[in-house]
Amino acid sequence: MSTSAKHSIAAIVPAAGVGKRMQSDTPKQYLTIGGKCVIEHTLEKLLQVAAIEKIVVVLSKHDDVFETLAIAKHPRISTEIGGAERVDSVYAGLTSLNDEYQWALVHDAARPCVEPGDIKALIATCTESTEGGLLAYPAKDTIKRANADGNVETTVSRELIWHALTPQMYKVHDLVKAIDFSLAQQFTITDESSAIEAVNKPSHLVVGSSLNIKITSPEDLHLAEMILQQQVNT
Ligand SMILES: Nc1ccn([C@@H]2O[C@H](COP(=O)(O)OP(=O)(O)OP(=O)(O)O)[C@@H](O)[C@H]2O)c(=O)n1
Ligand SMILES: C[C@](O)(CO)[C@H](O)COP(=O)(O)O
User: Fold this and answer.
1) What is the mean pLDDT of each run of 10 residues along the chain (234 residues)?
2) What is the position in ligand 1's atom list of the atom closest to the CA of 108?
3) What are the residue positions of the site described as Positions MEP for the nucleophilic attack (predicted)?
4) Which residue has its alpha carbon closest to ligand 2 atom 8?
5) 68 alpha carbon to ligand 1 midpoint, in Å?
6) Which pLDDT score is estimated for 99?
7) Closest to 204 in 3D by CA, of 173, 157, 176, 171
8) What is the reported pTM?
9) Residue 127 region, left (φ>0) first, then alpha (ψ -120 to 50), else beta?
10) Domain segments of the chain as ranges
11) Angle between helices 38-47 and 116-129 (to 10 degrees)
């Protein structure tokens, strides 16, 4: 497909993790909150953003649950098989786009509380500037660096410290190249922004809600339930 004929934005939703820190037999994306599983909440949020033309959900090769969900049949949703690490799953999603999309917006399946308004703000910032970026929020607490004994070494200025959230949005071509480079250098890549940093490209920090939590450990499920309930009420 020629550049001018490219579609604009595809979302990649990595959902191939096992959720070790969640300590549950069910992968956390399939735990239930208010009658729906986590990934259904997440996909419903993305589907509310009309600018996202396609959503690629990246699943474990052992996944036999996703196809049983009604949302799996949504015309804007397709699936791919992921890999051992989050970066491998994101890469599988990106390469499945076959160069047909200009932008990829990567969002963790485990972040169901994202606000569609924040996603739209990220899309507006990136498409207007033509450079990628991510949702994030500035550190609120006093930040400490620990020494090797686990005691305080020093207090770090929080002025320039931000928490990285998802979605993270980059040109597909740039992100594939950045991940290729980072993997070849054996860098640790926990998010898309770290790959983009590795190739010295800029990323916008777009302020998003700190309620866009990632369900990581058991107490987060309860917190997510309260946040989602609050979103319904307002
Ligand atoms: N090989 C992997 C690992 C993670 N993920 C996805 O990346 C997102 C964020 O990762 P994380 O919270 O670390 O999820 P898990 O790897 O499942 O959790 P844990 O590290 O506790 O095992 C999740 O939606 C998860 O499903 C993925 O698609 N492929
Ligand atoms: C992508 C991410 O959610 C941004 O905060 C995060 O980096 C995922 O990896 P983690 O190891 O679970 O923090």
Assistant:
1) 70 96 94 96 98 98 97 98 98 95 98 98 96 97 97 96 98 98 96 98 98 97 97 90
2) 24
3) 158, 214
4) 190
5) 21
6) 85
7) 171
8) 0.96
9) alpha
10) 3-233
11) 50
Q: Which residue from 35, 36, 38, 34 is spatially nearest to 14, judged by alpha carbons?
A: 38
Q: Residue 126: phi, psi to the nearest 5?
A: -70, -45
**Best residue among 65, 108, 194 to mutate for probing ligand 1, ranked by most atoms within 8 Å of CB:** 108
Q: Tell me what pLDDT residue 2 has.
A: 46
Nearest ligand to the C-alpha of residue 90? 1
Write out the H or E segment, with its range, that includes residue 54: strand 52-59
Predicted pLDDT of residue 188: 94
Cα 156 from Cα 78, distance rounded (Å): 44
Q: How far is the CA of 231 from the centre of ligand 1 (A)?
A: 24
85 lines ligand 1 (CB under 6 A): yes
Q: List the beta bridge partners of residue 134.
A: 168, 205
Structure tokens at 150: 């686990």
Q: What is the position in ligand 2's atom list of the atom closest to the CA of 214?
A: 3
pLDDT of residue 5: 54
109 to each of 56, 86, 199, 230, how far by Cα in Å? 11, 11, 26, 20
CATH class of 3-233: alpha beta
For residue 1, the model assigns a pLDDT of 53
Asked whether 216 lines ligand 1 (CB < 6 A), one says yes
**Quick check: CB of 194 below 6 Å from ligand 2?**
no
Give nearest CA residue, ligand 1 atom 25.
17
Q: Taking the mean position of all CA atoms in its chain, how far away is CA 164? A: 10
